[in-house]
Amino acid sequence: MKKVLLRNEMIKTVLLLISLFAALIVLNVINSSFLPALENSFILKDLRNRAFRKTDYGRIMNTDFIRKTLSGLNESYHGSIRSEFDISLDVLTWSLEEYSAAPDDEYRDMVMDITENQILNLIDINSKMIELRYSLFRYLLLTLSGGIILQFLFLTFSNIKKIRFMERLDLTERNFYEIQKIREQERKRIASYLHDSILQDLGGILIRPSINDDPEIRKDMEIVISNLRNLTYSTAPLQLHSLGLEESIKEYIGSFQKSSAMTIHFLCSPTGEIHLDEDEELVFFRFFQEGLNNARKHSGTDTVWVKLVESHPYLILTVKDQGRGFIYDREHPEESHLGLPLMEQAVKSIGAEFSVNSAIGEGTFLKMKYNLYQERIDGQK
Amino acid sequence: MDKSKIFITDDHSMFRKGVVSILEKKSEFEIAGEAETPEEMLAAPGLRSADFLLLDLSLGEVSGLDYIGKIRSRNPHVKIIILSMHNKPVLIKKAVNMGADGYVVKQSPPEILIKALQTIREGYKYLDPALSDSIYLCLSEADAVHTVSDVSYNSLSKREQEVFRLLAEGFTAVQIGKKLYISRKTVENHRSNIMAKLKLQSLPDLISYANDLGVI
Q1: How many CA atoms lie within 13 A of A82 on its CB side?
Q2: Cβ–Cβ below 8 Å for A258 and B159
Q3: Does the model's ipTM exceed the 0.95 cut?
Q4: What is the per-residue pLDDT for A270?
Q5: pTM value?
């Protein structure tokens, strides 16, 4: 994904540079010759209209006006057009001198005709220049437009891909949340069935006088019931929601200490009633269970601290030991710590933060931090 | 002595029939009625005249304990004995706190139930001896499983809790003000209040306190 993003960024940069380059050329073209040529066209048009005037004695040439106009022309022409322009200017300069020194009317008329032709020639040359510059301008404008359109399409396309990728990611997270939910529901269903059906049936059998009369059978049945009850509790914490998180944790610690010979210090600092729904409570409880089980299996120590504290707007649960620690690689977890990445996913699926701080010889610190006032992943709250 | 009238509510018919058969053998008891669900129980006329109610803790999706209030409104004098497969101290404690007069584990011998009825009839409360180990362990674990209900921390307002945590995380007053959209002066005021309420002298004290509490 990173390579794709990098490639996309490079392509965007190249397209942007092309567009900028084209834009610069266009601006230069406009500035250097197109505008001057356009200006000249107005000047020359004016020159054509006012170079001559009719009098009672015939047509005369406004030599001062022509001289003044010619000196005001922009001369930013290039190449062959420049040569043609210069020739016409030279002829016009000569014709102005000849007009002033004309010996007779016939010569004067001839000079005026030449002058008029050269003015028309200048107009023609200027038009050619405008046409040429306009063509170039048109091509550059097309390139610029093309570059911008390509960039826009590319950006749109890559954004669509990005959005789809994020949607898929979001879908994956939602799917995980749903899968987790289904998994816990299934565990609850199994535990409920074990408790409400199998255990109750055994209880019903146990109360029969015939069973009571045989101490050995009674004792065996009690063992079976006890084992089944423990299995029920380990499959799903059926009383979690009715007891609440704090009481359920305390109750679990009690049994845990019995079976593990570990000492668990539980510090709970609620400042009021903690309002969690069943799914959220379960994730907290499973996080706590995972933390304790990891400490029992891997820490090599016999003391664990569990802390549950409300720090507005968060509810924070931590499990800490001062044992041997480990290196947590989320992408490639050790076989012995496979539960942690799954736990992380479960915690994140309800929108909580998950962190693991552990180092060899420095113990392990697991933390879960949940904003009690956030909107849930399924849009509720 | 008049017979004690006993009403039984349990969603498991096999168990209920077993209890009925045991009690019917005893001349001192008579069955006032049976119910499978809380609704059936509350609607049954036998509940109003019963001396004892044998109430299952788990009635399907609901807990029998949640109906104690309504039961008492139908029959204020009825003695309630919880019957359950659960032997968790926390559940026993909850049952006792909600007004149960006795707690018997279902897998205990029938004599235990008879003993419970007789003891409570005498005016005492009764806990199944099978629960002794659990309760004893619960009492002896009190030091290890303790709740720090820190009165000082409980006295912080929600805003003060936020400022407290951000200070412990190393943010300055200016940064906290920006995060919470309040002025630096307001942050300083909150800080003073927090220090006073928690009886702290310095920022290192505050950080240490937050660490002990589990905030950081």
Answers
A1: 6
A2: no
A3: no
A4: 64
A5: 0.60
